[in-house]
Design brief:
11 helices
């Protein structure tokens, strides 16, 4: 890292890491990052927004409204393929939750041959250009097994050798073990610049065995009546009648429904369809979709959740305002990284860089380490 970058990070008694992000969505990762300040040996270590990019206009507006209201122009609405990242300000920290559609277990799993699979390479390009001190990459758990594991190996190899080299720590996080009232499992890859001589350690779970429940998340404290994005969705009489026969934790396939309420579907038995939440457990995964009975349904009331309730399950604060119509807001919430989990990961990174101890685990993801991956690599063609 050049001298200019090192000087720019020191502001009095603060060490500030300038943060850039691709595929930023509404700002779940970023909110956790900017909340992750720590003090150590008389210095405050924190992360400061520099720029962000997404191809969804409403997501950009939401990000600007909540993360960078003083610099809305720093959130760039653009296709990543057309983004002139070389003209953007210097950064020391980078994050990208590259689109996961082609690696998800739901769908065709096209991997690198799909529309979204190659998009991680734009994150690699940003790393090569800015050479940040650390980066965080996020994707679905299905990434690990896509293309018999070759996809994951290829991505790890490319990230490890980007910039001036990085020491990687990939891990499959179960967010219900990290203070999130939702069973959401995601791969997080943390890369620390090799020249720093450090390796990231996975922060220890804080709610393992005693996860936050749906009931607590949505009722303690109650959501204010005037909270933003809290509009009810009108339910048809047929949906209401169907929900009356579905108990907490059941879905349309497991409930004892009268014949006229049974769905006549042969090849789409997703467990989330008209599934009620179970109040004394974490929620099932909040997604960006919402059609066909996948809105997420209240355990007691005969209705789907409001977007504010969905945002609570994702650990967004009630004053975080989502911009856009109801459908757009639901998509933004479902695609986001829970800020609570993000904050824990970024806090651990700052602690590592500051030389401050933190509780951690030594587990790695199914024994996968990049040192072993090199010998097992097989060529994978990527088109961008």
């Amino acid at each position: 890292m050049n001298q200019k970058r090192s000087e720019n990070k020191r502001k009095g008694n603060e060490i500030v890491f300038r943060y850039g992000e691709l595929f930023c969505g509404p700002g779940g990762l970023a909110l956790g990052a900017i909340r992750a300040a720590i003090e150590h040996d008389g210095l405050l270590y924190r992360i400061e927004h520099s720029w962000a990019n997404d191809y969804d206009k409403d997501s950009c507006d939401t990000y600007a409204r909540n993360i960078s209201p003083q610099k809305p122009e720093s959130v760039i609405y653009s296709d990543v393929k057309e983004l002139d990242y070389r003209s953007l300000p210097e950064i020391d920290a980078f994050a990208f939750g590259f689109p996961c559609n082609d690696f998800s277990i739901v769908g065709e799993q096209k991997g690198f041959e799909g529309k979204y699979g190659p998009l991680y390479t734009y994150g690699v390009k940003v790393i090569n250009h800015f050479k940040p001190r650390f980066f965080v990459a996020e994707n679905v758990g299905g990434l690990k097994s896509a293309n018999e594991g070759k996809t994951f190996f290829k991505i790890l190899n490319d990230l490890e050798n980007s910039g001036d080299g990085y020491v990687l720590t990939p891990h499959l996080y179960k967010f219900e073990e990290y203070g999130v009232p939702q069973k959401r499992h995601r791969i997080i890859i943390v890369g620390i610049a090799r020249g720093l001589g450090l390796r990231f350690k996975i922060p220890a779970p804080i709610t393992k065995g005693m996860p936050l429940t749906v009931r607590d998340a949505l009722t303690v404290p109650p959501i204010p009546h005037d909270a933003p994005n809290n509009e009810l969705t009108a339910q048809s009489s047929r949906v209401i009648e169907r929900l009356k026969h579905i108990r907490p934790g059941e879905n349309v396939w497991t409930a004892n429904l009268p014949r006229h309420l049974v769905l006549n579907v042969k090849n789409a038995r997703m467990s989330q369809i008209y599934k009620r939440l179970y109040p004394d457990e974490p929620a099932y995964t909040v997604t960006g979709s919402g059609g066909g009975g996948t809105h997420i349904y209240h355990w007691e009331e005969n209705r789907s959740l409001t977007n504010r309730e969905r945002a609570r399950l994702q650990t967004f604060p009630d004053d975080f305002v989502f911009i856009g119509k109801k459908e757009s807001t639901r998509k933004q919430i479902g695609m986001a990284v829970p800020p609570k989990a993000s904050e824990m990961i970024f806090t651990a990174i700052l602690s590592l860089l500051a030389g401050k101890d933190y509780e951690h685990i030594d587990a790695n993801m199914s024994g996968i380490q990049t040192e072993f991956i090199k010998d097992e690599m097989m060529p994978v063609k990527i088109s961008t």
